[in-house]
Amino acid sequence: MGDDLIFDHNAGIERLIEIMRRLRDPETGCPWDIEQDFDSIAPYTIEEAYEVADAIQRRDWRELEGELGDLLLQTVYHTAMGEEAGHFSFQSVVRNVCDKMVARHPHVFGDESRDKSAEQQTRDWERIKAEERAGKAQQGTLDGVAIGLPALLRALKLQKRAARVGFDWPQTDHVIDKICEEARELVEARDTLSQAEVEEEFGDLLFVMANLGRHLGLDPEAALRAANAKFTRRFEAVESRLRDRGKRPANSDLAEMDALWDAVKLAERS
């Protein structure tokens, strides 16, 4: 029965669960898969989530299909290990998220009215999540913000939580003033303090920069991804122009590459 399921191309999620069970079988499975645990697999899970986001950003729908499958595999991997340890199963994970979605959408699955703005729905969503945290004995404002999130994303979530209880600058100009203050402190630290203290001041500056993005209605993570993409595009164009001259960055210099960079920027704007 197991082999029939594994080679049944139309079997769906049951096929994937059986494949993972076979891979993890202590006697007949894959040695690498058998050795893995939650900690070793977690980095792959994060990587696959980013690859999903990358495919979406590039509007590569065929690749997105594959990346979503890879991300689904991560869920199956973790649930297989959870079942082996007696913590949970794939079915209990599915049941949990279904119950959560029904509970968080009373305007769809209950008797609440759907006649409300997206802003009101967001407030209701956060209220329900706060009630869930209270049920888990998470009483603090910042409780439940995952430590393992990318630092920039976690900074944004922490700031949003604090803002809900009034701990926030009332105006964007105040945030900009704080950025200037943190920048001055970083310069002072660079000249007079230890490397650890410089790192601390640098972190403070990044944290406030994330806050500025929130005040401007921007996603700092998305903004930085866009900046990364722009830098990559322009630097590759600089390399291309160097190749036209029979050169590479290693045998160029900053003055030449900087001039080419300016030319690339000008070409993009024209």
Concise structural overview:
This protein is an all-alpha fold and 270 residues long.
Please give a structural write-up:
This protein is mostly helical and 270 residues long. The chain has 13 helices and no strands. It has helices spanning 2-6, 13-23, 31-35, 38-57, 61-84, 90-104, 106-109, 118-135, 151-164, 172-192, 195-215, 220-244, 254-269. The protein starts with a helix and ends with a helix. This is Nucleoside triphosphate pyrophosphohydrolase. InterPro entries: MazG-like_dom, NTP-PPase_MazG-like_C, NTP-PPase_MazG-like_N, NTP_PyrPHydrolase_MazG. Keywords: Hydrolase. It is an enzyme of class 3 (hydrolase).
From the structure above, extract its key features.
13 helices, Helix Hairpins, single chain, nucleoside triphosphate diphosphatase activity, 270 residues, mainly alpha
The averaged pLDDT comes out at 91
Number of helices: 13
Helix content: over 70%
Which parts are unreliable, with pLDDT below 50 for 5 consecutive residues or more?
Answer: none
Number of strands: 0
Instruction: Outline the biggest β-sheet.
Output: none
| Structural class computed from helices and strand pairing | mainly alpha
The end-to-end distance, rounded to whole angstroms, is 64 Å
| N-to-C series of helices and strands | HHHHHHHHHHHHH
Rg, alpha carbons: 25 Å
Protein name: Nucleoside triphosphate pyrophosphohydrolase
GO molecular function: nucleoside triphosphate diphosphatase activity
EC number: 3.6.1.9
Keywords: Hydrolase
